[in-house]
Design goal:
single chain, mainly alpha, Growth Hormone, Chain: A, Arc Repressor Mutant, subunit A, 2 domains, elongated
Length: about 500
């Protein structure tokens, strides 16, 4: 399935709304993390720099932990449309705290809570919204959204009007508007017993996930999570010494934004020229691993040029940040791919992946502050850059390799063909919407009890749907239905 974004494809199935909505989310994140000020706790040699970033990331990680511990019904409630508007309002309010309140420890803590918790939940909601879309559409849309967000931040920050960047603080409202529209298009909530506009009701047992549900959400590779954390560590190092307390948090962010837009354009070209999993060979290069390599190349170039480019007004750390933000684009794609492979809610895939990334980034901020405290002032930037570069290189060579992307590309290609086969069967035999949801679970060999648990319906309802599927498809049991599914996959080029 070839990647690519055209004007026509952006109009299909609400793609333009999703792309612009996710761009609003990312534009807000860029403005929050990189267009503000380096606020520290303490003073002098013992000042803890980027305390605002550390606190916000900590609260986001706590929000991800809350989602992972919640049951599916509680998770649906946390990510429901009405609450998304509440999160957006809190994000706007929290981002305005520095302008309305004191910048001491209390102000930083308040901002972190108001921005971090709802910010993490909004990001997970975007994971779910993007996860509902085919991967070959969602990945380019993510890149276009990042490029759009970077361009908007660059334009707004260049306007010679005091307070112009405050406009970016209201972007969460556009994000919530897009998410609610995406939810309406996706249909009713996961629990079919309640209507699309009804509020969920809970028992105490609904609020805590079972051991089996928690195990299901932990299926992302430990190696990939460790690599993601190391990339966050490298970024946290560089963000610590990019400026001094009281200065702009990222003085050369305009250069970063330009480089990020160029990266997104280059990555889109790579995606347009390839297909995810187009070749089953382990040695075949796919578009995602090429984009991953490009992001790492930009990061490593920044590490190498830290001592060189500062005199020319383009600090190496701005190049590192551009590579890191480009890498986040690739990671978002990876988290979507992993959600498709495991069959889990993409909100959980985002929660696990970004929790590792942000935990690594927090560790980088802490260790970066430590290096600045104990190293001579003139040597600290080079020590931090060397340490961060080694961490990123280790992750690239030993934890999070291109071969991982290639293997995932083959797996997700087969997953796409399976979904296409299910859609073809549903269309050919006139299955209802609920029967079409039961079909792939039945073809994967799920028991009636497991299907009932996953779709939140009774076992007798599952059996009724299965009998209707058998009647419509002319099959006489589960094995004949599986045989039909295998023939449909083969007809799409999936092999024997």
């Amino acid at each position: 399935m070839p990647f690519g974004v055209s004007a026509a494809s952006l109009r299909e199935e609400g793609a333009l709304r999703v792309t612009l909505g996710f761009a609003c989310h990312q534009g807000f994140v860029f403005s929050l993390f990189y267009l503000g000020w380096n606020r520290a706790l303490g003073g002098g040699a013992f000042a803890f720099e980027r305390a605002d970033l550390f606190g916000t990331l900590l609260c986001m990680v706590l929000a991800f932990a809350l989602l992972r511990a919640a049951s599916p019904r509680a998770r649906d409630a946390l990510l429901a449309g009405p609450l998304l508007w509440c999160y957006a309002a809190l994000l706007v309010l929290g981002s305005l705290v520095p302008a309305l309140a004191e910048s001491g420890a209390g102000g930083i803590a308040l901002e972190s809570l108001l921005v971090g918790i709802p910010g993490g939940l909004m990001l997970a909601a975007w994971g779910r919204a993007l996860g509902r879309r085919p991967v070959e559409r969602a990945v380019p849309e993510v890149l276009v959204a990042f490029a759009t967000a970077a361009t908007a931040c660059l334009v707004v920050s260049s306007v010679p009007v005091p307070g112009a960047p405050l406009v970016l603080k209201f972007l969460p409202l556009g994000s919530a508007f897009s998410l609610q529209g995406s939810q309406r298009r996706a249909g009713a909530p996961l629990d079919p017993a309640r209507g699309a506009g009804e509020s969920p009701s809970f028992t105490l047992g609904d609020l805590v996930a079972t051991k089996e549900q928690r195990a299901e959400t932990a299926r992302l590779s430990k190696k990939i999570v460790a690599g993601t954390a190391l990339f966050g560590l490298a970024a946290g190092f560089m963000e610590t010494f990019g400026s001094d307390p009281g200065m702009a948090s990222t003085p050369a962010f305009a250069a970063t934004l330009v480089l990020l837009v160029l990266f997104c354009i280059a990555a889109l070209q790579l995606l347009a020229g390839g297909a995810l999993g187009a070749d089953a060979s382990d040695d075949a290069e796919g578009p995602l691993d090429a984009a991953y390599r490009l992001a790492l190349l930009v990061m490593m170039a920044g590490f190498l040029f830290v001592p060189v480019l500062g005199a020319f007004g383009v600090p190496g750390e701005s190049i590192v940040l551009a590579g890191y933000l480009g890498l986040i684009c690739v990671l978002v794609s990876l988290f979507l791919v992993m959600a498709k492979i495991t069959g889990q809610d993409a909100a959980l895939s985002f929660a696990r992946g970004f929790a590792a990334l942000y935990a690594g980034e927090m560790a980088g901020v802490v260790l970066g502050n430590g290096i600045e405290l104990f190293e001579p002032a003139g040597q600290a930037p080079y020590a931090v850059a060397a340490f961060a570069g080694l961490a990123a290189l280790f992750a690239y060579l030993f934890l999070f390799t291109e071969r991982d992307f290639r293997a995932l590309s083959v797996i997700v290609r087969d997953a796409d063909r399976f979904e296409d086969a299910c859609a073809a069967i549903a269309d050919e035999f006139g299955l209802s919407k609920r029967e079409a949801e039961v079909l792939p679970l039945a073809l994967r060999g799920r028991t009636g009890e497991r299907i009932a648990a996953e779709l939140f319906i009774s076992k007798s309802t599952v059996e009724t749907h299965l009998r209707r599927i058998y009647a419509k498809t002319g099959t006489h049991g589960r094995q004949e239905l599986i045989d039909l599914g295998e023939r449909a996959v083969r007809s799409l080029g999936g092999g024997a």
